[in-house]
Every structure is written in C-alpha cells, then in structure tokens.
C-alpha cells in the first residue's frame, strides 16, 4: 500500500537594514534583508522543516547547526538540496507543497513565478507541485511593524 505522510514547517527571521533579502531562492530588492546564520531564506527553511517533519527526521537546525561555522552565510538552496537527498534516501518523493509567507512589504506576488521555477529546479520536482502564497499581517505584530518575516509550509510526501 502507498504510504503518504504530511509535514509542517514554521520559521521567523528578523529584517534589518544592511542585509540581503533572500526569499524562495531569489534575492529581492528591498531596503531591509533577513538576518540569520545562513542566508536566512525563511521560505526555504520552512520547506526543509516540513519535509524533514513529514519523514520524521527532526528539523533543519538538527541537520545544519546554527553554531557550525560551515553553515555561516550558506545559500539555503544547498540545504534544501541536501534535505531532498535525505528524504529520497528514505524512499520518499514529494507529493505537493503549500506555503504562506507573512511579510508586510514588499509585495511577493510578482516574484512567485521565479521562486517556483528556482525551487522546482533545486528540488527536482514539478513547479505545479509547489504553491507559494503571501499575506501581510495588516500592520499587526512583528511582521506588520516590518521587523521580521515568517512563513508556514505544509507538504505531502509519499512512497510506493
Ligand atoms: N508581502 C505580500 C503580502 C501580500 N501579498 C498579496 O496581497 C494580497 C493581500 O494581502 P493581505 O495581507 O491584505 O491579505 C495577498 O492575498 C497576496 O496576494 C503579496 O503579494 N505580498
Ligand atoms: C539554517 C540555519 C543554518 O545554520 O541557520 P539560520 O539561518 O539561523 O536559520 P534557522 O531558521 O534559525 O535554522 C537553523 C539553521 O539550520
């Protein structure tokens, strides 16, 4: 019988001036960028966490410690590629991904096609199986005050 599992991811990064803003594998032009040990790509991080959770393989920080200098400034696409390797070693393939980015500004919608193309290539899956959505938080909370960006992700993985 085919085995289907669900996974979920949530992550937050601060936004500060003087940092690049990597999101969904691409660099956005903005006066603030995301702060982290890695390139702080919050969308990729939640996809990684959702995939690892679905496969019952802990989380991103367990595999790629934020204390390890090896990961300082690392391109999160490299981490995502490694996570795909880990779940495929367990015999899983991605069913579909659904994600939401919480960001007050800038608008994400114009960039979603490029993000999907980039992530599909990194993961070796069909763009049609990746959904990316965005919401402001109506000026409320840390996202609304433009102090941070957060994201949520649900995935299905399956094996024969
Ligand atoms: N950073 C963002 C936030 C939102 N969007 C798009 O705008 C729509 C309206 O946002 P609300 O927070 O008022 O719901 C939202 O549904 C997204 O389509 C965006 O592109 N980038
Ligand atoms: C991605 C890693 C890599 O060291 O560092 P951060 O960029 O700080 O991101 P976080 O979401 O805190 O996840 C932990 C780490 O795996």
From TrEMBL:
According to UniProt, the name of this protein is 2-C-methyl-D-erythritol 2,4-cyclodiphosphate synthase
Instruction: Please describe what this protein does.
Output: Involved in the biosynthesis of isopentenyl diphosphate (IPP) and dimethylallyl diphosphate (DMAPP), two major building blocks of isoprenoid compounds. Catalyzes the conversion of 4-diphosphocytidyl-2-C-methyl-D-erythritol 2-phosphate (CDP-ME2P) to 2-C-methyl-D-erythritol 2,4-cyclodiphosphate (ME-CPP) with a corresponding release of cytidine 5-monophosphate (CMP).
Q: What biological process terms from GO does the record include?
A: isopentenyl diphosphate biosynthetic process, methylerythritol 4-phosphate pathway; terpenoid biosynthetic process
Task: Please state the gene responsible for encoding this protein.
Answer: ispF
Which of UniProt's keywords are assigned here? Isoprene biosynthesis, Lyase, Metal-binding
Its required cofactor(s), as named, are: a divalent metal cation
Organism the protein comes from: Belliella pelovolcani
Site positions per UniProt: Transition state stabilizer: 37, 136
Recorded catalytic reaction(s): these are: 4-CDP-2-C-methyl-D-erythritol 2-phosphate = 2-C-methyl-D-erythritol 2,4-cyclic diphosphate + CMP
Q: Which residues form the 2-C-methyl-D-erythritol 2,4-cyclodiphosphate synthase domain?
A: 4-157
- State its Enzyme Commission number(s): 4.6.1.12
List the InterPro entries: MECDP_synthase (IPR003526), MECDP_synthase_sf (IPR036571)
| Binding-site residues, 4-CDP-2-C-methyl-D-erythritol 2-phosphate | 11-13, 37-38, 59-61, 64-68, 135-138, 142, 145
């Amino acid at each position: 019988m085919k085995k289907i599992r669900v996974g979920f991811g949530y992550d937050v990064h601060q936004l500060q001036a003087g940092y690049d803003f990597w999101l969904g594998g691409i660099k956005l032009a903005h006066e603030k960028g995301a702060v982290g040990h890695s390139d702080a790509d919050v969308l990729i991080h939640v996809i990684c966490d959702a995939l690892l959770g679905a496969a019952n393989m802990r989380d991103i920080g367990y595999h790629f410690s934020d204390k390890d200098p090896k990961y300082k400034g690392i391109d999160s696409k490299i981490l995502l590629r490694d996570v795909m390797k880990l779940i495929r070693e367990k015999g899983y393939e991605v069913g579909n991904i659904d994600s939401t980015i919480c960001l007050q500004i800038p608008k994400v919608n114009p960039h979603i096609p490029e993000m999907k193309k980039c992530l599909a290539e990194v993961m070796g899956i069909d763009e049609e199986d990746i959904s990316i959505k965005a919401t402001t938080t109506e000026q409320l909370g840390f996202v609304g005050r433009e102090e941070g960006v957060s994201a949520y992700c649900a995935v299905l993985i399956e094996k024969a």
